[in-house]
Structure formats: C-alpha cells, structure tokens
Design a protein that fits this description.
This protein has eleven helices and three strands. The protein has 226 residues and is mainly alpha-helical. It folds into two domains: 3-152, Ribonuclease iii, N-terminal Endonuclease Domain, Chain A, CATH 1.10.1520; 159-225, Double Stranded RNA Binding Domain, CATH 3.30.160. Helix 8 runs antiparallel to helix 9.
Amino acid sequence: MSLDEFARRVGIGLKNPSLLQRALTHRSYINEHPEAIEDNERLEFLGDATLDFVAADWLYHHYPEMDEGGLTRLRSSLVRTEQLAKFAKDLNLGPEILLGRGEESSGGRERPALLCDVFEAVIGAMYLDSGLEAVFQFMEPRLQEAAETALEDQTLLDPRSQLQIWAQAEMNVTPQYETINTFGPDHEREFLVEVSIGPELYGSGRGRSKQEAAKEAAKNLLNQIL
C-alpha cells in the first residue's frame, strides 16, 4: 500500500505528504539511511503539545460539571502512552513506520512507547499541514470513545461529574444547582446549595465555598438514587 493510499484509508488527508513520511520516520532509520532527511522527533514534540490542548479543550466543553482535578485526571488518561499507542494500533500505523534493522528485530513496531511517539508525530504533521481544526475533527470520535471507557473507572470522577453522567444517561437532563442560603460572617461564610434533576429528585449540601457545597449536594443526591 502506498503512503497516499494509507493516508486516505485512515483519514489523514495531508496536502503535503512528505510531512506524513517524516512523521513515520524513526531515528533508527535515519541512522542507517543517511539519504533520509529528518526523523519524527520534532513532529512528536509538536504533536504532544497539540494533543494536550485538544484533549483539554474537548473535555472542558463536554464535561461542564467536572472539576479541575477530574478534568486533569481524565486528560491524563486520554493522552497517556498506552492510550495513544492504542490509537496508533487502531490506525495500523505499525507496518508503515520506517525503522532501522535493529529496532525492527527488537519488536519496535509493537512497542507502546514507539507507537505513542509515532502517533504524536502524525498529529504534529496534521497540525502543521491543515491546522488545529483538522486535528479536532480527527480526534473527536477517538476522544469520545476513550473518555467513555476511562469514565467507567469511577475514581476519575467527583460527585458532580458522576451525577451529570447519570442524569444525562437516565433522564436526558443536566442537573441544576442553586445557592439557596448563606450562613456566618464573611471570614467563616458557609453556603447551602441545592441540586435538582427535574421536579422530584433533589439534594442539598453545605460547604465553605459554593463549589464545595455543590459537590456535597451532588454526593447526597447520588446516595439517594444509586
């Protein structure tokens, strides 16, 4: 299969195909083929930063109730080595990588770290060639599937995120939060927040900040419904 055919098959439509060839060129190949111009390490650097941003932006807009800690943990799961290597395997990138003989004989095409690096380099090439929007379109379905899998691990989620996912899945609505009272002097202020899902499901919580109170309210409502 030619590089152009491979690019079309996996949906990597680059105007400059030499960028894709560079993205697939491991440094071990350069060592054995001095006529080759450049390996993929600079593209890997660019793709790594691009993926971090794309994943963060996608999570920010798709999980509005998730706090910073949850977003950080989930982003880490989406861009970790094993996940990016899985993306690479799904694209069948392994056979297309240009490797030196030593790297080839040691199983480089199947090594997660190498596959991760190549996937990052491909994303870097896509960004240089077609811009950030092309990367978003390419990554969105992959991020969606990977996030759903990751979220099966409830340790990634705070109570507000858990409640949002349950409410959207079971009732197709988003929980609504309202601060209904405050207590104490300014330096010891407490907030009472109520969360509701439709007219019948609601819970309340108190905390030293609105965010803390909302989290407690979500936790109390989850205890009722789960």
